[in-house]
Amino acid sequence: MLRNEEIKTSSDTSNMHQNFQIVNHGIPGTVLDDMLDGVLRFHEQDTEIKKEFYSRDVTKGVYYNTNFDLYVTPALKWRDTLSCVMAPHPLDPHKLPTVCRDITIEYCEYVKKVGTNLFELLSEALGLNYNYLKDIDCAEGLFLLSHYSPPCPQPELTFGASSHYDSSFITVLLQDQLGGLQVFHQNQWVDVTPVPGALVVNLGNMMQLITNDKFLSVKHRVLAHKIGPRVSVASFFRQHLPPENSRIYGPIRELLTPDNPPVYKETSVKDLVLHHNGKGLDGTSALGPFRL
Ligand SMILES: O=C(O)CCC(=O)C(=O)O
Ligand SMILES: [Fe+2]
């Protein structure tokens, strides 16, 4: 696991990295490889078998489709995705595709631990008790997206994922070695070059909202490739469209001062996700309507 100093401590969070890679995360390399293989196995099955999982109903625990924002996005992405709602309610394992069932469950158990550790470190980096972010349920929800981008004949015409911010508190991302992920940093797109065995961590919109812009969510995208396929697994720490009475989040009171008044309204994860999904991956932050 990364050490606290690597995230930056409470006295200096002004330049908090919005995106970083971690190597000592405790997940065995074989588990990472098996997870990527599992995703490949699922997507490379016969269409007839995958059809069983095809749906655009986001209230399902497991669903497979292409471009979740198909009907609103200005341009289509070169990517298919298997989406699995892994937590807070345990998913019935039988809902998961057989070809990647066991490894998905095993990988998620590890990722939950990584997420818990990260929320402890991020709490401390904010100058809060290490339990703070866990206690407000940031680590409760886990929404897993297993992406597959086939080789693309004209990669200059599309993206693996167009420019966007994640709606999560944090996203733990496992990518294969092909590359293509970029973050927008100091006014330019910068490659997040794959490091064998590493996980990428992105800060998402919900983190930016509760920290009142102390931690900013990272704008990122994935280029399409002539070669491939490219496989990646994004673990979103947030609840997935929870019920109406879900928890309300606003800027953390302990971080506010007369010089740092709240800049966001209180909102539920559900409202933010609905707005995010409703506008699609259009390059803008979903936080706009939630700003005061
Ligand atoms: O495939 C990747 O590397 C990134 C995926 C991503 O940004 C997402 O699922 O939000
Ligand atoms: Fe993303």
TrEMBL record:
Keywords: Iron, Metal-binding, Oxidoreductase
Name the UniProt record assigns to this protein: Fe2OG dioxygenase domain-containing protein
Gene3D superfamilies from the UniProt entry: B-lactam Antibiotic, Isopenicillin N Synthase, Chain
Family: Belongs to the iron/ascorbate-dependent oxidoreductase family.
Cofactor(s), names only, from the UniProt record: Fe cation
One function term, GO molecular function aspect: dioxygenase activity
Fe2OG dioxygenase domain location: 138-241
Transmembrane segment boundaries: none
Record has Protease as a keyword: no
